[in-house]
From TrEMBL:
A Pfam family matched in the record: Aminotran_5
The name this protein goes by in its record: Cysteine desulfurase
Membership in a protein family: Belongs to the class-V pyridoxal-phosphate-dependent aminotransferase family. NifS/IscS subfamily.
Domain named Aminotransferase class V: residues: 2-362
UniProt KW Glycosyltransferase keyword: no
UniProt-listed InterPro entries: Aminotrans_V_dom (IPR000192), Aminotrans_V_PyrdxlP_BS (IPR020578), Cysteine_dSase (IPR016454), PyrdxlP-dep_Trfase (IPR015424), PyrdxlP-dep_Trfase_major (IPR015421), PyrdxlP-dep_Trfase_small (IPR015422)
Record's keyword terms, sorted: Iron, Iron-sulfur, Metal-binding, Pyridoxal phosphate
Gene Ontology MF terms in the entry: catalytic activity; iron-sulfur cluster binding; metal ion binding
Amino acid sequence: MIYLDYASTTPIRKEVRETYQMLLENYYGNSDSLHDVGRATAKLMEQSRAAIAQLFHVQKDEILFTSCASESNNYAMKGFAWKNAHRGKHIISTCVEHSSIHNALEQLKETFGFEVTYLPVYADGTIHLEDLKKALRKDTILVSMMLVNNETGAINPIKECAAYVHAYSRAVFHMDGVQGLGKIPISLHDVDMATFSAHKIYGLKGSAILYKKRNIELLPLLSGGQQEQGLRAGTSNAPTNIVFAKTLRLALEEQEKAYQYVQELNIYLRREIENMEDMIINSPADASCFILNFSDLKIGSEVMLNALNAKGFCVSAQSTCSSKSKAISHVLLAMGLGEVRATHAIRVSLSHMTTKDEVEKFIKALKEIHHDYRTK
Ligand SMILES: Cc1ncc(COP(=O)(O)O)c(C=O)c1O
């Protein structure tokens, strides 16, 4: 199979796998135990936390280990909202967020009486600062926005939005940085909280972090022991947390080279698809080059996905977390691209591991499917 679904998840990097294997064998101690085996595990886990903090230029106690970005997002939404409800019950987000933000906010709204304003996006897939300015209120306690959209690659103006929120309100700014990490430069100094996942950067599944500035208080979503500053009870998944630092370091070290390389592939793929009859690109021109979303106006997403799969290609139609629902892409609809494009969308996501030959084969397969379908 030719894998072109790296925004969904990535294979584990060899160095990460080997380190993880070593950690599983040697660092099995409970990091809260007071004996030497436990202490050795705790020491490595705290070293990993410190290394992650250093890579992000933040403080060690601002990094929390979680099990996935969905969990980090739930902490940032519900953990924050519940702890800070006395300051106000209004939250701002966007209409194109990942389900782990959207559904957490819907729960806060439906069950806990919070008010949520979802900012619109435009044809370029991004939110506009003017809308945020209008939405911000005295009782707004939280603004959450994704850096890179997982379906189209559209990049939001995080720096400007966060700066405005900080200048004109007391609200806290959270960024879902999952699809940006290891791909484009990220500054955590602009934001108050941020979410990242290891399995999108050639690391382990079940491994993520929540960055949270020191002064920000969250309500624990898991009650019990003292782990992760008492916010997330349960014996720490130490080997997984330890190897996150290496995963991140390797991803950041290769980021620039990977970007240059993938950008070339993206330009080539985009041009080829643009030149095909009945094909239309949905990703904005300045989107992250790691994601290219397009629609074949004659072939629906499911038919195309299955046809590509039969020819040996792995791609997605919309967010993988929504792939089993029949719902059409809420992201493309929000961009105003219409129902046909939203129901015919295909997301290709590229990597430094993708070869030009794989892209050429993909284009050939696309042309064959397109031709077969038209001559049926
Ligand atoms: C933007 C974004 N946020 C959050 C997530 C959830 O990540 P995880 O699988 O680690 O829960 C994803 C996964 O696709 C994503 O793309």
